[in-house]
């Protein structure tokens, strides 16, 4: 049996580099240039500048009139009523929509059928038709009574005295939004894996408690984005109640320009207020989505403020690197 010779390794002494010896030139990695992306961005900025210039310098907008009426008492009162309508309709609509969604998911056909019929009717009818129908409900039911069916009535109220324009708007918008909210909540509940419910039942939790403590918190990740869109749509949809003479933001603006005949600047007042409120609601929607994404994402999306700080830090580092490269002495020059 032949044994191989032993291989001995001799340590190689590292020759220290002289302090004056220049560092070897390393290959520089240059990022790929996207000419099409820069060209598209330039065209977009040019179009935006043209539109902005046409809006700012167009005297027909009468920006001085816009500034004069922007914070008047009539406009602010209309804005507060629009915000109140939006909040009331969203709260009542989602409460009723949640009940309808649970009924739709029930195993009882007596509960499923009315829920499906409600959603079908109110999603199939335009909102304006519904508002006009409820505004003229007194033609069908002149009086509303409370009593025993097919028996005597204990309380009777005239419909005209009970349903005013504002209450009619709340009822019509709530019934319309609840049909869409029911589908939003139902879709969010169905997005949760069925194993979650089975695990809750295995632990002995009741169906109601499992729905409230396990299913609904996970379904909020799917519900919140659509609910945010519905909230913004409801805010803009409240302008349709102006046909019922409800003093919302749009109707208040219409009353003013019917007297001053300054239609365009007053419409710009309403438009700017809608844009401002929608921007605030969109920012709130971002933080709510971020809150409910904690258990789903390992890294939460950065907030706008943190993203801005990151961009500023990157720009600062680039400027510092550029300044350092300019101040570095040339290699091989005079010493």
Instruction: Supply the number of helical segments.
Output: 12
* Average pLDDT over all residues: 82
User: Would you count the extended β strands for me?
Assistant: 2
What gyration radius follows from the Cα positions, in whole Å? 33 Å
Main traits of this protein?
single chain; 335 residues; mainly alpha; two-stranded antiparallel sheet; 2 strands; 66% helix
Describe the structure in brief.
This protein is mostly helical. The protein has helices at residues 35-56, 63-69, 73-104, 109-124, 127-135, 159-162, 165-190, 194-202, 207-237, 249-260, 263-292, 304-327, and strands spanning 143-147, 153-158.
Describe the protein in words.
It is a single chain. With 335 residues, the protein is mainly α. Helices cover 66% and strands 3% of the residues. The protein is built from 12 helices and 2 strands, in the order αααααββααααααα. The protein has helices at 35-56, 63-69, 73-104, 109-124, 127-135, 159-162, 165-190, 194-202, 207-237, 249-260, 263-292, 304-327, and strands at residues 143-147, 153-158. A two-stranded antiparallel ribbon has the order 1-2. α3 crosses α7 and α9 runs antiparallel to α11. The two termini are 66 Å apart. The model has no long low-confidence stretch (mean pLDDT 82).
């Amino acid at each position: 049996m032949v044994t191989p010779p032993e291989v001995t390794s001799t340590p190689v002494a590292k020759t220290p580099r002289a302090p004056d010896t220049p560092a070897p030139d390393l290959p520089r990695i240059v990022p790929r240039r996207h000419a099409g992306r820069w060209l598209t961005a330039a065209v977009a900025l040019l179009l935006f500048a043209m539109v902005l210039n046409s809006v700012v310098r167009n005297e027909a907008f009468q920006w001085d009139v816009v500034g004069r009426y922007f914070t008047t008492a009539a406009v602010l009162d209309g804005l507060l009523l629009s915000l109140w309508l939006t909040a009331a309709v969203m709260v009542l609509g989602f409460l009723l929509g949640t009940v309808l969604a649970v009924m739709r998911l029930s195993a009882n056909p007596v509960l499923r059928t009315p829920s499906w019929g409600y959603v079908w009717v109110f999603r199939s009818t335009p909102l304006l038709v519904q508002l006009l129908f409820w505004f003229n409900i007194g033609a069908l039911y002149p009086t509303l009574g409370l009593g025993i069916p097919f028996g005597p009535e204990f309380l009777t109220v005239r419909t005209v005295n009970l349903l005013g324009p504002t209450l009619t708007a709340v009822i019509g918008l709530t019934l319309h939004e609840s049909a869409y909210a029911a589908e939003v909540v139902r879709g969010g509940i169905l997005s949760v894996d069925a194993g979650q419910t089975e695990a809750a039942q295995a632990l002995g939790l009741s169906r109601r408690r499992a729905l409230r403590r396990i299913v609904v918190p996970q379904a909020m990740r799917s519900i919140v984005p659509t609910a945010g869109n519905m909230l913004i749509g409801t805010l803009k949809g409240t302008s349709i109640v102006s046909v019922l003479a409800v003093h919302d933001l749009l109707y208040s603006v219409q009353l003013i320009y019917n007297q001053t005949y300054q239609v365009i600047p007053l419409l710009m007042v309403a438009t700017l207020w809608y844009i401002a409120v929608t921007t605030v609601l969109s920012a709130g929607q971002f933080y709510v989505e971020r809150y409910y994404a904690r258990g789903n994402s390992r890294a939460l999306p950065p907030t706008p403020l943190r993203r801005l700080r990151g961009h500023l830090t990157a720009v600062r580092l680039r400027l510092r690197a550029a300044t350092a490269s300019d101040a570095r002495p040339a290699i091989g020059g005079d010493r």
